[in-house]
Amino acid sequence: MTTHTFSLRPVLLCTVALLALEGCKRQQSAPRTPPQAVGIVTMQPQPVSVHTSLPGRTDAFEIAQVRPQVTGVVLKRLFVEGSDVVAGQQLYQIDPARYKAVYDTARGQLAQAMALDATAKAKVRRYKKLVREHAVSQQDYDDAVAAEKQAQGQIQSAQGQVESAQVNLGYTKMYAPISGRIGRTLITVGALVTAEQTSNTAIITRLDPIYVDVNLPAITLLRLKRELAEGRIKRQANGEVPVVLTLEDGSPYEFKGHMALAEVNVDTTTSTVIVRAIMPNPQKLLLPGMYVHAQLDEGIDPNALLVPQEAVSRNTHGDPQVWIVQPDSTVALRQIKIGMAIDTNWLVTDGLKAGERVVVSGTQKITPGAKVSVLDSKPKTDTAPGAAAQPAQKGQ
């Protein structure tokens, strides 16, 4: 009987090879994960109205403190507190008795001086003829001429006293120096007022128009000048910078004003420049000292880029960043700079170019370098050129 011996090692090796080959086939046949679908917008330049919104305070266009210029007792008050007065309107009457007496005395002295002058002139005329006939001496004639000149000097002195007395008599009637709204009176009838006193009797404030003073950061002023020089912002047709207000309760102010001036010096403590606007105030709604928000219309940026706010995220340092779809359909994370908010968009100041594609949806599952499929690729043009702008938040 013949016995055959078989080795199991070759069989086991063949089995392992077959199993490995089957595993490779299964791995090759496994489906690949499709690219992440993302929604995008394509950056396109568009004209946008550029605004800067800053807090400010209202200030009176004109203000006058009414003070007496002569001493006396107040006899009458001739205005209603809190009413509107016009320039030249009488406000108070001070007792004029003693000033009237001084004025009358000065007029009497003037009349005396004029009488002496008439006598001196007549004497000179007579002596002039007599001195030629040697009827009077030359010395007498010279004395007569000197007396005439002295009389003329007395007339001028008396006229000055009359004018001074007349001015003081006029000061007993206190008039409004400007037109505006007068506040409460700080003196009553019967009170004694003195000339050149430091306390005022009433205050008149002109409310229409009214100033609005805002503090513009110096860095913002530099940016505006640079953008104007580069042509990114165009000036208004009339050269003025329109200003609109938002009141403290959040309601808009119905009238539009314009920027009047900007200080030439920067406040070293706050690094700001005071910008003053003039606002019409026919209804007297704005009062000095009110807190408002002033929106300065800087002009039109003809090539502005707007990115949707939902496309912007923040890194650990708080810097804004967006996902960009590159030409090879891969995504990359890019840091950008943004300015003000315009509707639901951010105004891009640096980091993006026209034609680049920004991811607005589907960012949860993408990583740098990953391929994506584009769902939407329309230009970002949903904001009108005249859209209102709000200031960017801190950390942009």
UniProtKB/TrEMBL annotation:
Gene Ontology annotations for the cellular component aspect, listed alphabetically: cell envelope; plasma membrane
Location of the Multidrug resistance protein MdtA-like barrel-sandwich hybrid domain: 63-205
GO BP: any one term: response to antibiotic
Segments of this protein annotated with the region Disordered: 371-396
Residue ranges occupied by any Multidrug resistance protein MdtA-like alpha-helical hairpin domain in the UniProt entry: 103-172
Subcellular location: Cell envelope
Record-annotated Multidrug resistance protein MdtA-like beta-barrel domain positions: 209-299
Primary site of residence: other
Residue ranges of every copy of the Multidrug resistance protein MdtA-like C-terminal permuted SH3 domain listed in the record: 303-365
Signal peptide feature range: none
Biased segments, Low complexity type: 384-396
Transmembrane segments: none
GO molecular function: transmembrane transporter activity
Family assignment from sequence similarity: Belongs to the membrane fusion protein (MFP) (TC 8.A.1) family.
Protein name (Swiss-Prot/TrEMBL): Membrane fusion protein (Multidrug efflux system)
